[in-house]
Amino acid sequence: MDQTYRNTPVYSEVIIDNIFVKTFSKRKYESQFNSLYQHRSNELKKRVMKLAMPKWNGCDINGMKTKFLPKVLDVPFSKPCFIIGTTLADMKYKPDVLKEVELSVQGHFKELNELNGKAPDSMQDIDKLRKASYSDPKTDKLWLEDESGRILLTGDLLNKKILVTGLVIGVLGMEIESGIFHVVDIMYPEAAPQKFIEPSLNKEGKLLLCSGLNVSSKSDFSKYEMLSSWICGEFGDIERISSINEMMILGNSLGVNDIQENDTEIKSNKPKKNKYIEDFNSQYEEASVKYLDDFFSKLLQSVPISLLSGINDVVESGLPKQAVHQSLFSKSSKAENFHRLTNPSFYEINGVRILATSGENIDDIMKYIIPNINVTEDPIDESITNDSRLRIIEDSLLWQIIAPTAPDTLWCYPFENSDPFTLMETPHVYVIGNQPKYETSLIELKRKNGESVTIRIIALPKFSDSNTCVLLDLQSLRCESVEFN
């Protein structure tokens, strides 16, 4: 009987970058987040200036020459200029821990209880609104701030752009009223350099991408068995499956079981909700973990697996999520071709640099963009929340920050003198898991020296909902979806 063998993946000496690795023994939580913001600002301001200065400095607006002002509070009235700073989105339903501290210190306990949803029913609804969106279009404001202070941004151009908290941008315009800056153009940071793909490393092969297995006691296990059988060649399709060098699973391998009203024992043992992070609704099921361990160990006999942690998995809530502990998948972890990755993760295979996340960063950005269905005058079709995520993902590469809303509304570790979410290198492929549907695009970013960098973007759907995986060709960076019915 003829046997077909897969090509062995080509790894660099360090296939997994350690920029997102933070071992528990070295963690320090006494630091303030100001250090992270300061590092982000210092790094990206220089890159905004590289592009803004040659385009804007000295240009003519209404017969007046523009110039750069290093402080937002130095903006003169009714004179064109450009400034650089960090955006702050002021939104009605955005969690505000500082507001709670202020009310507590001042002794306004009645208002504090209302803010925490411990008073009228109308206040208890706020947490529900925050899950869908932070936005109330009637009251939303966008500020630009630096060390000197902040200024309010206005203008029709802002309605055409995706702008959230934590971006470092340049804006061209003029102050039309005291403290109000009318924007006519926006500049993002210069793209970070991209590593050259060595031809000697870039062998033929494909990467199988999958996310959101969501295995639980209520799962339809036939879909996982079908996926396993296909990868192992039991359905034929030998030419395609033999080209797979590795399988990457982008978070949420474990599923969430909703707590029923009669599950009083589970409810009493469930930790109280922290309103500044996602609900802790993942219930640990030993049977589900054992099934996944057996599922992975079977596949590992045929193909290497790299596994990212996700919000449903047994890991901490904040970013970057560390790799799942090896004891969780005791059988699979014994295999040398089983790679446990952080979330996000920078990974290299066949010379291709891949940036992967399980999708929490994009999901949080969505809450800044989609107006809240419960507070808008015109009803918003539910399909909007399932609309294309490509624009957001592409813009996050323009911003050069993959998680700009961390730590404002997306919990993360308080890094000192660094911000791992700021891109110091542009990946060849950016993959985001657990999205509403499969989408892909190829974008090109320009650099000041005239060169351009190209990035393949892939939005992966949840396998538990879509029965869909994606094959990425590691040479051409083309991809195709594979659906199991």
TrEMBL record:
Top-level division of the source organism's lineage: Eukaryota
Cellular component per GO, a single term: delta DNA polymerase complex
Entry similarity comment: Belongs to the DNA polymerase delta/II small subunit family.
Positions of the DNA polymerase delta subunit OB-fold domain: 32-186
An MF annotation (GO) of this entry: DNA-directed DNA polymerase activity
Name of this chain's protein: DNA-directed DNA polymerase delta subunit
Domain DNA polymerase alpha/delta/epsilon subunit B: 208-438
Organism: Pichia kluyveri (Yeast)
